[in-house]
Q: What sequence folds into this?
């Protein structure tokens, strides 16, 4: 299971759970984000970036992580892709790409170590030629990452196309020549921008040993990896060119998912935030404020994490599913969601479940916001008195592989 996959479908069990628990929706959080976001200039991608904007985004994410901690010079997903790539193609093409990938990983590791990127006595950015060389390596490592996520997408990367065109002539030098100069410039420009932003102040105040780049979560039920945790501050990087639209529902739910997946409190997360690489803006929320803005029904984080884990475990690998295999699965997961659904106690708001204050005497809802949200939640089957919650219907073609 994947957190990002589960957030895409509005009817996946994971989304149904979060949509009900986060009763206020993303609107209040989005307004707060826009109030915090201050930017006079947006670094737009150069023309040559084109469809490789995602590649640039992944590369700058990794470069920023390395500025905080260089404990893992090569991203885990890139290392997985390098190993998997040996089985790609025919006539030894995959083995050639694997050999070049290993040479890339060795060179990237040596470069990161020699530049001492997480040294707080040095600025975040290095000389222009050093940053351009590093950007080329990070961009090409990103293409290896693609294979760890989708074989179909990997076939369209410049890496795969160049190797298939001339397998015998594919070398590390050839690989590093593939990125368009605009891709390199875009990564370097965003890095220079970060070096003069609040992100540099955060870096200066922390130590490498207090930072975790690409943190993963100890859940056997679902895969998810965030960008960075800095001394309890879970930070997600976004390279969008439309920053004011960034705090979407998916982004808000994604940050919540990271918070809930840290069930053992490994990273001691007390603050959540976004850094927008094209504006240099850093926004943040203490966990309590974040949950309040989303109207979270269960404010006790330990309890909410326990229930989230119970959902993931009870779905037997289908929490992120856009479809379920059988009607029996549909019924079982519906019963699970109904059992985990929050219930308003006496004297509590039926939307956010928080206790009504004395000033709310003779009122049903604690705020105008909750009153406005009530009908929407009822229509979506997310409140008592509304229709039964929608779930993905059964797909008979999936029944053969359905878990027992």
A:
């Amino acid at each position: 299971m994947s957190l990002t996959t589960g957030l895409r479908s509005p009817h996946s069990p994971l989304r149904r759970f979060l949509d009900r628990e986060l009763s206020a929706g993303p609107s209040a959080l989005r307004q707060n984000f826009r109030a915090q976001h201050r930017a006079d200039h947006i670094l737009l991608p150069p023309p040559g970036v084109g469809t490789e904007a995602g590649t640039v985004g992944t590369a700058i994410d990794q470069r920023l992580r390395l500025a905080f901690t260089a404990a893992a010079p090569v991203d885990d997903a890139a290392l997985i892709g390098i190993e998997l790539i040996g089985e790609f193609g025919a006539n030894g093409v995959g083995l050639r790409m694997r050999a070049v990938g290993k040479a890339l990983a060795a060179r990237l590791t040596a470069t990161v170590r020699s530049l001492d990127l997480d040294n707080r006595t040095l600025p975040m950015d290095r000389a222009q030629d050093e940053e351009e060389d590093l950007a080329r390596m990070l961009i090409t490592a990103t293409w290896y990452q693609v294979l760890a996520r989708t074989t179909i997408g990997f076939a369209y990367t410049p890496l795969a196309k160049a190797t298939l065109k001339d397998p015998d002539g594919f070398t590390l030098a050839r690989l590093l020549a593939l990125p368009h100069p605009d891709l390199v410039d875009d990564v370097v420009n965003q890095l220079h921008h970060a070096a003069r932003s609040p992100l540099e102040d955060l870096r200066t105040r922390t130590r490498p040993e207090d930072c975790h780049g690409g943190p993963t979560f100890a859940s056997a039920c679902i895969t998810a990896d965030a960008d960075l945790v800095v001394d309890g501050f879970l930070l997600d990087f976004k390279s969008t060119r439309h920053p004011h639209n960034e705090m979407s529902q998916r982004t808000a739910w994604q940050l919540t998912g990271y918070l809930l997946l840290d069930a053992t409190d490994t990273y001691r997360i007390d603050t959540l935030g976004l850094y927008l690489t094209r504006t240099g803006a850093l926004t943040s929320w203490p966990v309590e404020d974040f949950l309040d803005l989303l109207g979270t029904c269960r404010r006790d984080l330990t309890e909410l994490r326990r229930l989230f884990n119970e959902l993931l475990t009870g779905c037997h690998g289908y929490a992120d599913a856009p479809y379920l295999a059988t009607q029996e699965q549909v019924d079982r997961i519906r019963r699970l969601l109904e059992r985990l659904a929050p219930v308003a106690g006496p004297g509590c708001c039926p939307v956010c479940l928080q206790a009504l204050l004395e000033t709310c005497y003779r009122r049903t809802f604690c705020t105008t916001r909750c009153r406005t949200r009530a009908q929407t939640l009822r229509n979506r089957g997310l409140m008592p008195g509304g229709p039964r919650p929608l779930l993905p219907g059964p797909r008979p073609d999936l029944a053969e592989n359905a878990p027992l």
